[in-house]
Amino acid sequence: MDTRNSDVSRAEQLKNLANEAFKAHKYTQAIDLYTQAIELNDQNAVYWANRSFAHTKLEEYGSAIQDASKAVEVDPKYSKGYYRRGAACLAMGKFKEALKDFQQVKKLCPNDPDAAKKLKECDKAVKKIKFEEAIAVPESKRHSVADSIDYRAIEVEPQYSGARIEGDVITLDFVKKMMDDFKNQKCIHKRYAYQIVLQMREMLKALPSLVDIKISDNNHFTVCGDVHGQFYDLLNIFELNGLPSEENPYLFNGDFVDRGSFSLEVILTLFAFKCMAPSAIYLARGNHESKSMNKIYGFEGEVRSKLSETFVELFAEVFCCLPLAHVLNGKVFVVHGGLFSVDGVKLSDIKAIDRFCEPPEEGLMCEILWSDPQPIPGRGPSKRGVGLSFGGDVTKRFLQDNNLDLVVRSHEVKDEGYEIEHDGKLITVFSAPNYCDQMGNKGAFIRFEAPDMKPNIVTFSAVPHPDVKPMAYANNFLRMFN
Q1: pTM for the model
Q2: How large is the C-alpha radius of gyration of the chain?
Q3: Which GO terms describe its molecular function (predicted)?
Q4: I want to staple 380 with a disulfide (CB 3.0 to 4.6 A). Which of 34, 309, 389, 436 is the partner?
Q5: pLDDT > 80? residue 481
């Protein structure tokens, strides 16, 4: 057998192994195997499209679009290439680009009912966006929805048996009762939901974009990563590590909502603890605390279903008040995504960011929310298609410039719930175990004890939850691809 035939044959074997890894939800392993197949035979569109799908599963939509584009370049008649690219564009909210790809799928497969259905849904989504853009009120003329709400005027019906706030003070007893109601799939009265969210808004508005946290000697502090609407796993964290209090403080590092279908329960619980005792819990903004993500990944639909349209607008407003970064004892920098496309960024530059807006598509605020570490030095394009990838040298320089010891970030699912990179100078922590009910990963949180502030990582497994699937409230169209 000549070398070329041998390479083609070996590539096919690798593809089959990759397919098995994919079926077992081992997407990183699948990507590695598809990559080896592509290195042996880069003229097979299937390999590129399959690797694109694996990237999509890891939310690496930028890489997914690149691979799918390569698949259609290799074989312009390969419908699955357009399909994969359309799905990745859709996941990024690029509906118009997705529409073009699904039109191409329909042209190549005119009798495929699935292609026709997706094209119809995509068309509907694009028309809806155009309509919303047409009727949108310019930012300068927009009034705060919070200012129009008087929760005290909302009557609580006598038959309501759920958690109640007496007066203005949110107590631990109320929060415990509310969590118990949530656990039993009951919602709290909208009067109390408004009270929590409006109090939270006032509190967050007063904070700087970068919050300094002081931890006294012999006291501890816990950092959690993404929770993503996995309320029952949040309860498990509190079971394992204690409820938030001034003696047992937490920082939740963004992405409280979306994907998981108990996002409202998560966000109201975290907000209620913050209202109860501001120094018991700190909250950072993640890339999913934004209108564009909430529209696609379920939070908007969930809030509309469980509460009302007004709450959709109110949460969007409050998310714009969340701080972007925290520093623990002047040594540990905690941020949702990562570092920057330029050197020399100082903590004072982060403090100076005007964060009261939807996240921009470039600049410091965008990078804080979206960036990821990479194993090689320097900087590279983001596999997500937003932000950038940064190497260990970038981390080291940033820490030196700001007299810091460690970067803690979240934003990426990890098999063990955490990963230590960049010569121990960067830790990723992710607190949503068995993410989306399919990734099989552990969750983790980090406990720091003052004064040495060494990270002590605790991992945990997923716990059962009621039979409500992830993405149950997500954009109809997107659910087709999950």
Answers
A1: 0.95
A2: 23
A3: metal ion binding; protein serine/threonine phosphatase activity
A4: 389
A5: no
| Helix or strand run (H / E) with residue 113 | helix 113-135
Determine contact, residues 112/83, Cβ cutoff 8 Å: no
Pairing of strands 325-328, 210-213: parallel
Fill in the amino acid letter for 479.
R
* C-alpha to C-alpha distance for 439 and 452, rounded to whole angstroms: 34
Q: Which of 411, 442, 441 is nearest to 426 (CA)?
A: 411
Beta partners for 380? Answer: 389
- Measured CA to CA, the distance from residue 372 to residue 62 in angstroms comes to 13
429 strand-pairing partners: 418
CA distances in angstroms from 444 to 236, 241, 288, 340, listed in the order given = 11, 11, 19, 25
Residue 34 has pLDDT above 80, yes or no: yes
Report the alpha-carbon distance of residue 259 to residue 408 in Å, rounded: 23
The confidence score (pLDDT) of residue 1 equals 47
Rounded distance between C-alpha atoms, residue 211 and residue 347, angstroms: 10
DSSP code for 217? T
Phi then psi for residue 127, to 5 deg, are: -65, -40
- Two tokens at 149? 């709400």
Q: What are the backbone angles phi and psi of residue 283, rounded to the nearest 5°?
A: -130, 130
The mean per-residue pLDDT over the stretch 382-388 comes to 95
**Residues catalogued as catalytic:** 288
User: Do the Cβ atoms of 338 and 372 come closer than 8 Å?
Assistant: yes
Residues 119-154 have pLDDT tens digits of 888 788 778 777 877 777 676 667 899 999 999 999
Q: How far apart are the first and last CA of the chain?
A: 41
Nearest partner of 163 among 139, 140, 137, 181, judged by Cα: 181
The string of pLDDT tens digits covering residues 338-384 is: 999 999 999 999 999 999 999 999 999 999 999 999 999 999 999 99
* pLDDT number for residue 157: 95
pLDDT confidence band for 239 (50 / 70 / 90): very high
